[in-house]
Request: fold
Amino acid sequence: MSYLAAPDRYDTMTYRRCGKSGLLLPALSLGLWHNFGAIDDLDNARQMLRTAFDHGITHFDLANNYGPPPGSAESSFGQLFQQDFVTHRDELIISTKAGYTMWAGPYGDWGSKKYLVSSLDQSLRRMGLDYVDIFYHHRPDPNTPLEETMVALDGIVRSGKALYVGISNYGAREAKQAIQMLRELGTPCLIHQPRYSLFDRWVEKKLLHVLHHEGVGCIPFSPLAQGLLTNKYLAGIPADSRAASHRGNGALEEGAVTEDKLRKIRALNEIAQQRGQSLAQFALAWILKDPRISSVLIGASKPAQIVDSIGCLKNISFSAGELKKINGILG
Ligand code: NDP
Reply:
């Protein structure tokens, strides 16, 4: 059935400025790493995109290798985009990335100009787009001069194939170098995409400070630790969960659901309940309490999860007492 976007889609979402740029991002963005591949149900994927957009989520995040198989999330997205969203192109921020293994031979991985330019051309073909809004280098490459990778990103913006560029999984020191190089080239780094959740707080040491100081936005990924920071694993590993899915490609595995994690999840869930939030809402609100965060990049396997997660926006402030308790639980 043809899609009519909800007329009230901009009424409740909040939008945050991405660093010192002109771009506003929704407080929650939707990532297509899992559940949008060729092995997944296309109609469920369609319903998730529609649900997200109907609630003001204007940013969809992809990468060349999302699937499985790699490339298929972009192909599925392209198909659904053409059917449902083509008339909304100017309301959408669509991102993709290159940096992990994508095709055989020496030019399908890491950070050379050859790889980045070819990969973006492939991504645009799969999605049926003329340009992406944000193109990322997906991970640092220890063997390619940083300057070559940054010159490639700058050239991509100048070619009109991306409006903005970003980096992902860069440590604080290498991020600072990349940001400075891009600035000198005349293409400011828009955004950094690091992993960040209650269970993985490495960005708090230095990276968030560097990004804030440089005026670069931050969009954390896996804010729910791939589903661990929800109430779904409290009574075992459900058959329809990511941990039970054996999807590979970095997806959460059963072995990650440890007794130590469950003890922490149960204790955090008690605070969430006292706040009147689901554990997912609590974990997302905890990230959004920091104004240096531009947007939080959620994943989902069902439309209802997206609606639940958006509910976090009703309360993103934490008392000093709550924060102390949380830190105590996490050790
Ligand atoms: P999350 O930590 O948000 O995990 C998403 C999973 O959590 C869902 O698939 C679902 O699991 C579960 N879930 C989500 N919402 C709820 C809810 N409200 N209630 C209960 N369970 C819920 O994020 P992802 O790990 O999926 O990462 C998000 C995005 O970040 C990716 O799609 C991608 O765009 C980006 N990313 C970037 C990386 C990078 O290197 N730059 C690496 C990884 C991700 P289930 O499937 O079990 O139902």
User: Anything to note?
Assistant: The CA atoms of residues 218 and 293 lie 5 Å apart. DSSP finds ten helices and ten strands in the chain. The two ends are 50 Å apart (CA to CA). The chain has a mean pLDDT of 97.
